[in-house]
């Protein structure tokens, strides 16, 4: 009841000015969900505002919320001790990846309840993102790994930048053992993903992966040996698809497709934002996106004397922010998590169905394999190696006035 | 080598007799598609192309054309490169240039493609990445 509705926005300034700054007045910044018959979609789950308001808020609060922090150990020993002003896309990358880890280790149905004792896996997930140099996906690790992507520490990231960095960092997280695939050129190649998820390289040594003993894993299951082997080798997949859905603003033909991404059970949400401000989008209602905002600076958190990590500041306990879909900056990355091969096959099916929906322009293409010229260098004499530049000169072999004629 | 045309006005504004130009080139090369490829005016990461106008085989898949442009710009495979048709949509990569041309050619007879990477997000102007020449150098040489 203390929340403002949209129609009361004009009073907003006065309310804030007139109030003293307490927790309750802070809540005035956030609008409650509109009373609407439209369903609310949060990361693949459908809710009704009328009957499930508590469940919606509990789902949102359960997501890990990473914001700007201050007073953390200096990045690289002598670098920044706060990411205010530059870390928003790095924080959004942490949030979408934390959601993948939650799905992997706790499940989509897991809920965070304030004050309730959580299981060990929860603290292991949270610890992977804490602001210190040796956490798998800390702001320290992301900022330093970004140097390899041409980003010095403190520079702004785009959705693809943070996706590329997280993919590299995930290789060190043997606890999660994720297959991270980033689909470039708005094309998802199924064959590449299957090869990645079925690769057993990290498990090559028997000691490194003792659980892949068919008798232990599949005792009592009647599957055929081939199916068993495939299943045992499927690594949980984090699929990130960086896109640009327009130049200055999002092409509205993509809006329906974007909404559908939040309806899939495999949804990890979307990282993107408004110009200059990165957000982690977790769902939508009507024509509005629902998001977690990293633009609040909180003090860095350290384990207390008893070794426990105070975790309340990692959960957004006010109603989530909303914005019109039309305001979305066109540069985004869409994320999905497929725990099993079956999940992935189901995801492919949904994407194919979606391409048949009228008025929903596909944001990316799903293809079985890379077009032949990508994989077969003989066809067009083009391989992705360093000698391409020399070969290309032959493609641009003649000119007619100002035209460059490709002899392909 | 031509001067960098991407930093000047868009092709459409620079050139007036475009229809006639297309008619002439189509007569000379009936199996090639006249394509104008320009860098997004606000692009900060991707380098400019030295050429604006291309004649491309009509049965060339768009994906192959993208590979060609990516290679020309010395892009690493992890860098984003989006080719938007008529400044709006991301075309399906598996269609041919002819198919793309049929649905999207301009009334002057050219096919207009614009390339862009992704925007960067942040709010503190003091560490704006676009102003940093070192990062551009690293980017061009790849990781």
TrEMBL record, chain A:
Annotated Peptidase C54 catalytic domain residues: 54-350
Any one Gene Ontology BP term: autophagosome assembly
What InterPro entries does the record point to? Answer: ATG4_LIR, Papain-like_cys_pep_sf, Peptidase_C54, Peptidase_C54_cat
Which PANTHER family does the annotation name? CYSTEINE PROTEASE ATG4, CYSTEINE PROTEASE ATG4B
- Protein name, UniProt field: Cysteine protease
| EC number(s) stated in the UniProt entry for this protein | 3.4.22.-
- Where does it reside? Cytoplasm, Cytosol; Cytoplasmic vesicle, Autophagosome; Endoplasmic reticulum; Mitochondrion
What are the alphabetically sorted keywords of the record? Autophagy, Cytoplasm, Cytoplasmic vesicle, Endoplasmic reticulum, Hydrolase, Mitochondrion, Protease, Protein transport, Thiol protease, Transport, Ubl conjugation pathway
Q: Which GO terms describe its cellular component?
A: autophagosome; cytoplasmic vesicle; cytosol; endoplasmic reticulum; mitochondrion
Q: In its keyword annotation, does this UniProt entry include NADP? A: no
Organism (species): Amazona collaria
Reactions that this protein is recorded to catalyse: [protein]-C-terminal L-amino acid-glycyl-phosphatidylethanolamide + H2O = [protein]-C-terminal L-amino acid-glycine + a 1,2-diacyl-sn-glycero-3-phosphoethanolamine; [protein]-C-terminal L-amino acid-glycyl-phosphatidylserine + H2O = [protein]-C-terminal L-amino acid-glycine + a 1,2-diacyl-sn-glycero-3-phospho-L-serine
Family under the similarity heading: Belongs to the peptidase C54 family.
Which molecular function GO terms apply here? cysteine-type endopeptidase activity; protein-phosphatidylethanolamide deconjugating activity
Please describe what this protein does: Cysteine protease that plays a key role in autophagy by mediating both proteolytic activation and delipidation of ATG8 family proteins.
TrEMBL record, chain B:
Keywords (alphabetical) are:
Autophagy, Cytoplasm, Cytoplasmic vesicle, Lipoprotein, Membrane
The record's subcellular location field reads: Cytoplasmic vesicle, Autophagosome; Endomembrane system
SUPFAM superfamilies hit by this protein = Ubiquitin-like (SSF54236)
Q: Where is the lipid attached (Phosphatidylserine amidated glycine)?
A: 122
Q: Describe its membrane topology.
A: Lipid-anchor
Q: Which GO terms describe its cellular component?
A: autophagosome; cytoplasmic vesicle; endomembrane system
Gene3D superfamilies recorded: Phosphatidylinositol 3-kinase Catalytic Subunit, Chain A, domain 1
Q: Name one GO biological process term.
A: macroautophagy
- Which domain of life does this protein belong to? Eukaryota
Q: Which family does it belong to?
A: Belongs to the ATG8 family.
Give the protein name, as stated in the record: Microtubule-associated proteins 1A/1B light chain 3C
Recorded source organism is Amazona collaria
**Native organism taxonomy:** Eukaryota, Metazoa, Chordata, Craniata, Vertebrata
């Amino acid at each position: 009841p203390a929340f403002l509705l949209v129609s009361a926005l004009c009073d907003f300034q006065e309310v804030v000015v007139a109030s003293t700054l307490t927790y309750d007045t802070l809540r005035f910044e956030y609008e409650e969900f509109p009373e609407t018959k439209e369903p609310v979609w949060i990361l693949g789950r459908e809710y009704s505002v009328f009957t499930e308001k508590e469940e919606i808020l509990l789902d949102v609060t359960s997501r890990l919320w990473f914001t700007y922090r201050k007073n953390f150990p200096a990045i690289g020993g002598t670098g920044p001790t706060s990411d205010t002003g530059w870390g928003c896309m790095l924080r959004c990358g942490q949030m979408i990846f934390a959601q993948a880890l939650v799905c992997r280790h706790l499940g989509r149905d897991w809920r965070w309840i304030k004050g309730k004792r959580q299981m060990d896996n929860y603290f292991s997930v949270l610890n992977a993102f804490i602001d210190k140099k040796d956490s798998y996906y800390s702001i320290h690790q992301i900022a330093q790994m970004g140097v390899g992507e041409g980003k010095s520490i403190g520079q702004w990231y785009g959705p693809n930048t943070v996706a590329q960095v997280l993919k590299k960092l995930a290789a060190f997280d043997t606890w999660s053992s994720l297959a991270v695939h980033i689909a470039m050129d708005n094309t998802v190649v199924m064959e590449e993903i299957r090869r990645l998820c079925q690769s057993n390289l990290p498990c090559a040594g028997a000691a490194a992966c003792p659980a892949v003993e068919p008798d232990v894993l599949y005792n009592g299951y009647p599957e055929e040996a081939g199916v068993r082997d495939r299943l045992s080798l499927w690594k949980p997949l984090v699929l990130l698809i960086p896109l640009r859905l327009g130049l200055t603003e999002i092409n509205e033909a993509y809006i329906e497709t974007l909404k559908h991404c939040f309806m899939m059970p495999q949804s990890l949400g979307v990282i993107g934002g408004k110009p200059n401000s990165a957000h982690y989008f977790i769902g939508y209602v009507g024509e509005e996106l629902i998001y977690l905002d990293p633009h609040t600076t909180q003090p860095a958190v350290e384990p207390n004397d008893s070794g426990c990590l105070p975790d309340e500041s990692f959960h957004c306990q006010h109603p989530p922010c909303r914005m019109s879909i039309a305001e979305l900056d066109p540069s985004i990355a869409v994320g999905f998590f497929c725990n099993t091969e079956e999940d992935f096959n189901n995801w492919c099916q949904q994407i194919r169905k979606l391409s048949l929906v009228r008025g929903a322009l596909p944001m990316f293409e799903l293809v079985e394999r890379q077009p032949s010229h990508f994989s077969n260098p003989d066809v067009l004499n083009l391989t992705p190696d360093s000698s391409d530049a020399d070969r290309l000169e032959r493609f641009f072999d003649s000119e007619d006035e100002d035209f460059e004629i490709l002899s392909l | 080598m031509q001067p960098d045309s991407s930093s000047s006005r868009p092709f459409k504004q620079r050139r007036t007799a475009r229809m006639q130009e297309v008619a002439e080139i189509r007569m000379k090369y009936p199996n090639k598609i006249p394509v104008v490829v320009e860098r997004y005016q606000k692009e900060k990461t991707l380098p400019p192309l030295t050429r604006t106008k291309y004649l491309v085989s009509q049965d060339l898949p768009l994906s192959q054309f993208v590979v060609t442009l990516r290679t020309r710009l010395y892009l690493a495979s992890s860098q984003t490169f989006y080719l938007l048709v008529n400044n709006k949509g991301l075309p399906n990569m598996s269609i041919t240039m002819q198919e793309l041309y049929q649905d999207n050619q301009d009334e002057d007879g050219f096919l207009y493609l614009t390339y862009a990477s992704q925007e960067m997000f942040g709010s503190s102007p003091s560490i704006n990445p676009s102003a940093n020449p070192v990062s551009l150098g690293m980017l061009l040489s790849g990781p």
